[in-house]
Amino acid sequence: MGNIIKGASTSITESDPFTYSLSSCRPNRFKPLQAKLYEAIMKDDSTSIKALLAHQPVNEPLIVWDNSACRRTLSIQDQSILPIHLAAKHRREKSLRCLIESGADPKLRDNRGYTALHLLLLHWPNIYLTETDILTRFQRNLGITQSNAEECLRILCEKEVQTDPEMDSNYKHSSLHLALRSGASRAISILIENGANINDRDEFGKTALHTAAEHLNKEVTETLITCGANINCTLPIYGKTALQLAVCTASSKAGTVLAADIDCIHLLLMNGAKVNTQDCDGRAAIHDACLGGRKEIIDLLVDYHADVNILTRQGQSPLFLFLQHRTNLRCTSLLNKLLNLSYPLKLTNNQGDLPTGLLLQEFQIQKDFLVRLSNNMLSLQDICKITVRRIYGEKNKQRLKKQLPVTVWNSLYNYQDYSQLW
């Protein structure tokens, strides 16, 4: 398979596969001096740039006319662009350094409120190379483009550019959030090293870790955790943590159908994410996992001591949410596990309503059985078994096996198969 390139230009040259060729589309309605400066920047010719800046103000916009020859390659934003913005947008490392040394102001914004840093991140090359020992010339060019982008970012950071400038628009993204949304994962560590606020929030109150976890981006999540992100930070409105957002995504219908990877969830738990944190509605990660019915997620949360009996503000237990869906009721092995961990067995919410799945005619037998079971008083021995399972979980049961008599261990982890009783 070849490379997958997101946001690549349709015209590709050997020097930069993400920009058009000046020889095939020369802006012929520039002022003569500006045309030369434009071309020198695009060619990364610092010697010519220095000579031209003796006659052209470095912070004066270049006016590019959208003539018929260039209509396909020059957007409306390119019609008036500052030299430093041009260099940053097209990742011209030598040009960017030369312009800054000549007095170009990285803090200047264009008509959309973007600084040079914003434009660099917005046009970051998203490159995913396949595992191969043979790199084509095109692949090598893509690698060079990625390196140029990183070097340009370092140049801007070296010049003490503010790494957290908000875009002057309806979306107040910091540089870190913008890097995430642009797929510039390799830029994140550079930004943090140079002072970007790792726990800064966007207009929705999300930190970068919230966003990375919600998209199940393990690589970025790991980088952010390593750099000191607050792993248990909650959203101001909904109160959800990064762990809850990751579980919601992986447990959604799309996440279930596509068998979304759960490594990000595991990573958060391994690094101290609080598994029983409840949001503003009283929902914990185990509630969303049970509603989605993905066994591997429920098992993982239980291994990290998720409370299977924790209630939402409406009095819904994880089992209650599990029983909402027809597909979950058909998963008898998972239902058995939840029943063997639940005490007291609470089938209704605060209003006394049963889960909608149990009200379906096809599950009448299961409903009658579970209602009877919820009304039964468990023996002290059964309560102790459930308590031990909850405390130690599946993760530690082999360690217990070495410490307990065989008969005791077998009694603890010999789950009752309730499906045979209905």
From TrEMBL:
One of its GO terms (biological process) is positive regulation of transcription by RNA polymerase II. It comes from the Eukaryota. ANK repeats lie at residues 79-111, 171-203, 204-232, 281-313. The keyword Isomerase does not apply. GO terms for molecular function: transcription cis-regulatory region binding. SUPFAM superfamilies: Ankyrin repeat (SSF48403). One of its GO terms (cellular component) is nucleoplasm. The keyword Repeat applies. Keywords: ANK repeat, Repeat. This is Ankyrin repeat domain 61. It comes from Gopherus evgoodei (Goodes thornscrub tortoise).
